[in-house]
């Protein structure tokens, strides 16, 4: 993909480092947690939850590795994409004058997307492992409304904030 957009290095701010470290930590904890308790899992673990957070589909315990693996691969792909902000889809024409602020915002959005994915996967994974170990754990009815609310609210915030930073 060829563009005439300027290629600049976006400096990391402390918040960027903190968000990435939290995401990495969550995925490492998921892997460690799986290794620690894999032997304790029953042969069948929950692999799907209904709107109320109750397990409604079960599969072989080998499926417990899916979320940590998919999450780690997703994190790595988005982390790599974050090093190339000039190829991101921007809502404005990128010039030398506005590149830094738009690239900074775009990379920050990807970092928080990674964090959002890590948190969701970690919660679901924890419940899957605990249910697989025979513990009475439930995601609960609060989980889905929060995920949907953030999934709708975050893009709206991005649209409004992007207009604000490009008003000048």
Provide a descriptive summary of the structure in words.
With 168 residues, the protein is mainly α. The chain has one domain (14-165). The protein is 58% helix and 7% strand. It has 4 helices and 2 strands. It has helices at 14-37, 66-81, 99-132, 143-165, and strands at 44-49, 55-60. Strands 1-2 form a two-stranded antiparallel sheet. A hairpin with a 5-residue loop joins strand 1 and strand 2 (55-60). The model has no long low-confidence stretch (mean pLDDT 88).
Q: Supply Rg.
A: 19 Å
Low-confidence stretches: none
Q: What is the ordering of alpha helices and beta strands?
A: HEEHHH
Q: Would you report the number of β strands? A: 2
C-alpha geometry: elongated
- Total of domains: 1
What is the count of helical runs? 4
Straight-line N-to-C gap:
29 Å
Average pLDDT reading: 88
Main sheet strand line-up: 1-2
> Which range best describes the helical content: under 10%, 10-25%, 25-40%, 40-55%, 55-70% or over 70%?
55-70%
Helix and strand content put the structural class at: mainly alpha
**Which strand-content bin applies to the residues?**
5-15%
Major sheet summary line: 2 strands, antiparallel
Question: What does the secondary structure layout of this molecule look like, with pairings?
Answer:
Layout: H1 14-37, E1 44-49, E2 55-60, H2 66-81, H3 99-132, H4 143-165
Antiparallel strand pairs: 1-2
Compose a concise summary of this entry.
The protein is mainly alpha-helical and 168 residues long. The protein is 58% helix and 7% strand.
